[in-house]
Specification:
Elements: E1 2-3, E2 16-23, E3 26-32, E4 37-38, E5 54-55, E6 63-64, E7 70-72, E8 88-92, E9 106-107, E10 134-137, E11 143-146, E12 154-162, E13 166-179, E14 183-193, E15 200-201, E16 211-213, E17 221-228, E18 239-251, E19 261-273
Parallel strand pairs: 6-12
Antiparallel strand pairs: 1-2, 2-3, 4-5, 7-19, 8-9, 8-12, 10-11, 11-19, 12-18, 13-17, 13-19, 14-15, 14-16, 14-18
Length: about 280
């Protein structure tokens, strides 16, 4: 059921889509929207109950891996504000140059007064911008991240999966450098089970974190993986995988403070159906 909150004395909030997914005796309520939500208990259907809230939507609806592999290989620069790839969300921070330990508190969204003067004709289309902190849609080359020190710097792409009935989950993706710059950025692969808790690094065969390191060569790209996720993500109703674009703290020159523009593309997540071998018991 769709509930339009725009005419209910709330801040200018886009419509929300309520998609309950039954889990045991209760329900999990997934919310998708692109702005803050305030005190909307009275607007919900009577069979939902939510306490007074003040939060932002950070949990995408999961892709059911049992129904097929997940693939991401295209994002349009003409996607509208508040749009995100299916089962995915782009996140931004409340600071400049987020480090690896910093978390992200907001979905990617650019308010009208935050658009660069050269992008006034692109208001409402934040994936097609040419200035300031932004996520750019690159059509068949995926998406690019670049920070410019706006106090709302990026970022991460977060994918949600339902791995129920699946095991041996593997992830492959492509990282690339569009524009190398003074401040060095990387993209690190992380995961967590459920909606809460800290994200963990995905280890490679040497138990080192899996990541794409920003290159000093424009146009560099590298296929990362496939890497198998830890067993704890197997057979779970909700798992998040995160590609974290973060500032390494390394600055190559003091002449300027521009940041690496990095690219993410060709994500593929696969798994095997879980089958438990049936044992035989012999009675004598």
């Amino acid at each position: 059921q769709d509930i339009d909150l725009r005419n209910n004395n709330l801040r200018d909030v886009s419509p929300l889509r309520f998609m309950p997914s039954l889990e045991g005796e209760g329900s999990r309520l997934y919310l998708q929207g692109n702005e803050e939500l305030w005190n909307f208990t009275s607007l919900l259907p009577r069979y939902f109950y939510i306490e007074t809230v003040d939060f932002k939507i950070l949990d995408p609806v999961p892709h059911t891996l049992k129904e097929g592999d997940y693939e991401f290989n295209y994002w349009s620069p003409y996607a509208s504000a508040g749009e995100y790839p299916e089962n995915m969300l782009f996140l931004q921070s409340d600071r400049t140059d987020p480090l690896l330990e910093d978390e992200f508190s907001m979905p990617y969204y650019v308010y009208e007064d935050q658009y660069h003067a050269d992008d006034q004709d692109k208001i409402g289309y934040p994936y097609n911008l040419t200035g300031r902190t932004r996520v750019n849609g690159l059509y068949g080359d995926g998406v690019a991240f670049i920070n410019t020190g706006r106090g709302r710097d990026l970022g991460a792409a977060v994918l949600a999966l339902d791995t129920s009935g699946m095991e041996n989950i593997e992830v492959t993706w492509e990282g690339g450098t569009l524009t190398p710059n003074s401040r060095v950025y990387n993209i690190r692969l992380q995961y967590r089970v459920g909606f809460d808790g800290e994200f963990q690094d995905v280890p490679d065969e040497n138990n080192e974190p899996v990541e794409y390191e920003g290159s000093r060569d424009a146009g560099d790209s590298r296929v990362v993986g496939p890497f198998r996720l830890p067993e704890e993500v197997d057979k779970q109703p909700y798992v998040q995988i995160r590609w974290k674009y973060y500032y390494t703290g390394e600055r190559l020159t003091e002449e300027h403070g521009r940041r690496d523009q990095l690219r993410l593309d060709d994500i593929v997540v696969t798994g095997d159906r879980y089958t438990r071998a049936e044992g035989w018991q012999l009675y004598q």
